[in-house]
Predict the 3D structure of the following.
Amino acid sequence: MEIEGNAALIVVDVQKGFESAYWGRRDNPEAEGNMAALIDRWQETGRPVVFVRHDSRQAGSPLAPGTEGNAFKDFVKERRGAGAGPEVLVTKTVNSAFYGEPDLDAWLKGAGIEQLVIVGIQTNMCNETTARMGGNLGYDVLFALDAMHTFDLAGPFGWSRTAEELTRATAVSLHGGRFARVVTTEDVLKGTAA
């Protein structure tokens, strides 16, 4: 797999608020290490990085503006501004990074970017929504499944699914539905090797 020289890494909602017990049990304890490895590679190679922050409007949310939980996790905060390539911060109040400020689609198109690699939190929420919209907008979307995580979730009719089940369902829907190619961190790192 070849990663374009100007492919954008979209780092979605890697915020301290997701460390709260509010969310419940999570999957993939290796997610943060994989995210960090991809950010480092993007910054070393001068590729563009988009950091996305969720500014929740929901009462009591650990991601609300002005709270400690709204801040990026330390490993992301330390890396912001450290790369040789372009970087932008997109803030949003909904699930898709394409509905934030500044306009992500306009920023990507203005830079001639056609390929996206998505990482971050949560797999089946903002990551999946961003990937679906990116696919609909015509981008070549790579979904680095092991560089993200999610949480167990209760739904209608007494149904609930584990984080692992939700991750698999997201991967099958995105890949099978051709919204994105589901890949691993290793796949992406190999595709960016000099």
Summary: Helices lie at 31-45, 74-77, 104-110, 123-136, 163-176, 185-191. The chain has a mean pLDDT of 97. The CA atoms of residues 90 and 102 lie 6 Å apart. The longest strand covers residues 140-149.
